[in-house]
């Protein structure tokens, strides 16, 4: 081992990477525990056992159950915040297709067992946790901005306010799909059909707006 590998900076970097890996391991185990049993008997000992580490090792990173739950919820929100960023990174050349793909991502995220199990808990906790509520609001705002950017080339004649209205409509529709339940083969039970219907509704809403002439529409 070289002297550089023995340096305080190298040791600190190595320790940071090790701690980050352990935190990821713990959070994954916590999510798996929620997915398996919900919040029934959810506790530090159960998560530690699922992560195959000692309780003291878990508490080194998350001292209390509240600390762990906040970390889990923060991770779920971060994934929600990045769903459009990661999913549309290599956007289609056709703007309409790119926007339709974004809608599909928002609707189909509910097919993920992790989100189905954890997001309702995040929303419920946000009712009494201002920090968590602010994180959710920021996540929603980011998604709206991302949708507006995808909408601009589809409807260049619309103002930012009009595009933002469509973005809000799309997000509300995607969230509404999650609350619809599984009823036969209706749109509520079929994410792909729901996404297509929502894309059509967004296009019709855009076409209902009167064109606004002049520069500075997106200021």
Biggest beta sheet attributes? none
Share of helical residues: over 70%
Please tell me the overall pLDDT.
83
Number of domains: 2
Radius of gyration: 22 Å
Work out the helix count. Answer: 10
SSE string? HHHHHHHHHH
Which structural category do the helix and sheet elements fall into?
mainly alpha
Which ranges are low-confidence, i.e. pLDDT below 50, for 5 or more consecutive residues?
Answer: 181-187
What distance lies between the first and last C-alpha atoms, to the nearest angstrom?
57 Å
Kindly state the number of beta strands. Answer: 0
Structural account:
- This protein is mainly α.
- The chain has helices spanning 3-6, 8-37, 44-51, 55-61, 65-87, 95-108, 113-126, 130-151, 160-179, 191-208.
- It is elongated, with a radius of gyration of 22 Å.
- The protein folds into two domains: 1-63; 81-219.
Layout of helices and strands:
Blueprint: H1 3-6, H2 8-37, H3 44-51, H4 55-61, H5 65-87, H6 95-108, H7 113-126, H8 130-151, H9 160-179, H10 191-208
Helix pairs in contact: 2-3, 2-5, 2-7, 3-4, 5-8, 6-10, 7-8, 8-9, 9-10
């Amino acid at each position: 081992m070289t002297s550089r590998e023995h340096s305080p900076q190298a040791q600190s970097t190595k320790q940071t990477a090790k701690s980050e890996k352990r935190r990821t391991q713990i959070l994954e185990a916590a999510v798996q525990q929620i997915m398996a049993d919900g919040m029934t008997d959810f506790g530090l000992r159960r998560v530690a056992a699922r992560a195959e580490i000692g309780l003291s090792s878990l508490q080194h990173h998350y001292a209390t159950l509240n600390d762990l739950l906040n970390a889990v919820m923060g991770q779920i929100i971060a994934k929600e915040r990045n769903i459009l960023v990661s999913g549309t990174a290599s956007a289609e050349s056709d703007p309409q297709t790119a926007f339709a793909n974004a809608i599909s991502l928002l609707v189909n995220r509910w097919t993920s067992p992790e989100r189905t199990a954890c997001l309702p808990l995040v929303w419920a906790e946000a009712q009494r946790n201002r920090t968590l509520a602010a994180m959710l609001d920021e996540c929603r705002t980011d998604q709206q901005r991302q949708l507006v950017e995808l909408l601009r080339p589809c409807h260049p004649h619309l103002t930012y306010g009009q595009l933002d209205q469509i973005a809000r409509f799309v997000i509300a529709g995607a969230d509404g799909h999650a609350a619809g339940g599984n009823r036969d083969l209706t749109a509520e039970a079929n994410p792909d059909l729901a996404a297509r219907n929502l894309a059509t509704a967004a296009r019709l809403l855009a076409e209902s707006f009167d064109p606004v002439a002049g520069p500075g529409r997106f200021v």
